[in-house]
Structures are given as structure tokens and as C-alpha cells.
Specification:
The protein has 360 residues and is mainly alpha-helical. The chain is 82% helix and 0% strand. It is built from 13 helices and no strands. Helix 1 runs antiparallel to helix 2 and helix 1 packs across helix 7. It starts with a helix and ends with a helix.
Length: 360
């Protein structure tokens, strides 16, 4: 993936320079820089950066040229005033809408560059727009045609990695039921999943731009992201329970059922990630349900023997919260299975259409 990006960036830079020289653009530098900037890891990312960069450049160039024409800088003091008038509103707009952050930079170039090139502000503005447009178009076309990286495939790969991290995290959290976890360790464990979900959310936004532009015919990434977020909330709830270890009497009775739950849940999470990558149907929930039923039966026996009444209020709250979190995770596993099956249907539909075409 990284080698593909490096190759696309190189091709975009060389091609934009060649085209800028062929078209006799005054400063090919801006075309090359723009091509490098807009060539992103995925097609969806390149599409967004291209649109943002072109919009910011066009707005900054037009506004900078208007200011320079209406308030021509006759001397250095006047140039300072013109620069302030041009930068201040565009900087405010960029602060409100970061996608337009290139606008004040373009305005500065349009105002200051004529002093070097001795061209008029209008000509300078037109040149900047042409150079940036050339670089933007070249960067996007290269991203789309040369070793294209589909954001949906990147999202699926990121989701599978997140599920693997959740499986590891679940085991670490349940281990805390025997000795307890300190807050620093709990934050360290949970932060990895938070970072993975943040990255997945960024890739998912790029994938949705591809769908909106009809560059991909894949399922929406939103439902999958929401399911993973709910699973993360389940892990957060379990993590709060593990800050205080279970009493020894409870731990002795629950150690075996919890070990079964840990194995079944971790295996299901990893198998779901592998199914996503392979675009096949969801794994069976049978082992997870069997392990949770065994755990529920043992907790019911503890309650029937009256042992839960001997617990302090906070310990009892944590004990019942663990059962609730595991049951909530079970429900979210059903949603996860639906999402996995949803992504598995796409290759099946494509295969069916291909067979129909052959039959025709």
C-alpha cells in the first residue's frame, strides 16, 4: 500500500512537471506541489483534497486579485496594508472551514509575486489557478488510474485490525478480574482501540466520498463503524468493572466460565475480521452463546445461594454490570454478523451478474 502511494506520488510529480512545461506555465513548481499534495492513500482521499485545494485556490486567487486591483500597493507601507486586508478575512474563513486553508496562502502569492515577476495581479491569479488546477487534476487522475487504492478495501482492512485489537483487549480486561487493573493500565489498553476507530472513521469518510461520486459500489461504511463503536463501549464498561478484582469466592466459581467466554469471544472477533477481509459470511455465534450461557448459569447459582447478598454495594454493582456488558456484547455480535454478511453479499452479487452475462 505504501509502495503504491510512493509510486503514484512520483508519477504525479513527474507528469505534472512535464505538462506544465509543455503548456509553458510560468511557475511549474505549483503544479508539481499540488499534484504531490492531492495524491493520497485512497481515491476518496485524493478526491476530497483535490476539491478542497481547488476551491481554496480559486477563492484566494480571486479575492487576492480583487484586493490588489482595488487597493494597488504604491509603496512598502501600502503593500503591508493590502496584505492585511487580503489575509485577515481569508484566515478567518480558513479557521472556520479548514478545508479552505490554502485560500490565504494563494492570496499572499497573488499579491506578492507580481513584485518579483512584474506581472499584474490578475495575470498572477490566473496563472496560480491554472497551475494548481493542472496539478490537482493530474494528482487525482493518477490516483484513480495507477495502482488505485479503494477506500472501502482500506476500511475493511482497518476494521479487521480493530476487531483483532478488540480480541486482545478483551483478554487483557478479563485478566484484570483476578488482580484488578489500575487506571493507567486501563487507559493504555483502551487507547489503542480508540486510535484504531479514529483512523477507521477517517478512512470511512473517504469511502463515502467514493460512493457519493459513484467511484465504488460497496455497502455504506456507517453501519459497520457504528457496530464497532458499540463494541468499544462494551469493552469500556467491562474495563470499569475490572478496576476492582472479584472476591476470591466468586472468582473461584467463575474462573472456568470466564475462561470459556474469553476464548469464545476472542475467537469470534478474530474470525469476524478474517471474514470481512475474505468477503465471506459471518462465523457462527454458537460457541459464544454456549460460553455465555455457562457463565449465566453459574452467576444464577451464586445468586440462588445468596452469595451476592454478602457483597458490598460497589462490588455487587460491578458484578451485575459485568453480566450486563457481556449480554450487550452478545447483542452487538448479532449486529456485527449482519454487517459481515452485508459485505459478503457484494462479491456474490457481482459473481451472479457475471454468470448471467455469460449465460446471455
Amino acid at each position: 500500500m505504501q509502495l503504491g502511494l510512493a509510486f503514484r506520488v512520483t508519477v504525479a510529480a513527474v507528469l505534472s512537471l512535464a505538462l506544465a512545461q509543455f503548456l509553458n506555465l510560468p511557475l511549474p513548481l505549483w503544479a508539481v506541489l499540488t499534484a504531490i499534495i492531492v495524491t493520497q492513500l485512497s481515491v476518496g482521499g485524493s478526491l476530497k483534497v483535490t476539491i478542497d485545494y481547488l476551491a481554496g485556490t480559486l477563492g484566494g486567487a480571486v479575492y487576492g486579485a480583487v484586493v490588489a486591483v482595488l487597493v494597488p500597493p504604491a509603496n512598502e507601507s501600502a503593500l503591508l496594508l493590502v496584505l492585511a486586508i487580503a489575509v485577515a478575512p481569508l484566515a478567518l474563513i480558513a479557521a472556520i472551514n479548514p478545508s479552505l486553508r490554502v485560500a490565504p496562502i494563494t492570496a499572499v502569492i497573488v499579491i506578492l509575486l507580481p513584485a518579483i515577476t512584474h506581472a499584474s495581479p490578475v495575470v498572477s491569479a490566473v496563472d496560480r489557478v491554472l497551475e494548481v488546477a493542472l496539478g490537482g487534476i493530474v494528482g487525482f487522475v493518477v490516483s484513480f488510474l495507477i495502482l488505485p487504492a479503494n477506500a472501502h478495501r482500506l476500511a475493511i482492512a482497518a476494521a479487521a485490525r480493530t476487531l483483532d485489537q478488540m480480541a486482545d483487549t478483551f483478554g487483557e480486561l478479563l485478566a484484570g478480574l483476578s488482580q484488578g487493573l489500575d487506571m493507567a493500565s486501563l487507559h493504555r489498553i483502551q487507547d489503542h482501540i480508540g486510535q484504531a476507530l479514529a483512523q477507521l472513521n477517517t478512512i470511512g469518510a473517504e469511502a463515502e466520498r467514493e460512493r457519493a461520486a459513484r467511484l465504488a459500489a460497496e455497502p455504506a461504511t456507517g453501519p459497520l463503524l457504528r457496530t464497532l463503536l458499540r463494541l468499544r463501549h462494551d469493552l469500556v464498561m467491562i474495563g470499569r468493572v475490572t478496576l476492582v478484582p472479584l472476591p476470591e469466592a466468586f472468582l473461584k466459581r467463575l474462573r472456568s466460565p470466564l475462561s470459556q467466554v474469553e476464548t469464545a469471544v476472542a475467537d469470534y472477533l478474530r474470525a469476524s475480521g478474517a471474514a470481512l477481509l475474505a468477503r465471506r459470511g459471518s462465523p457462527s455465534l454458537e460457541e459464544v452463546e454456549s460460553a455465555l450461557n455457562a457463565y449465566a448459569a453459574e452467576t444464577a447459582a451464586l445468586r440462588g445461594e445468596g452469595l451476592t447478598r454478602t457483597l458490598p454495594a460497589d462490588a455487587a454493582e460491578r458484578f451485575f454490570a459485568l453480566g450486563f456488558a457481556l449480554e450487550q456484547m452478545h447483542q452487538n455480535f448479532r449486529d456485527l454478523g449482519e454487517r459481515v454478511n452485508e459485505w459478503a453479499e457484494v462479491p456474490k452479487r457481482r459473481g451472479a451478474r457475471a454468470k448471467d452475462g455469460v449465460a446471455d
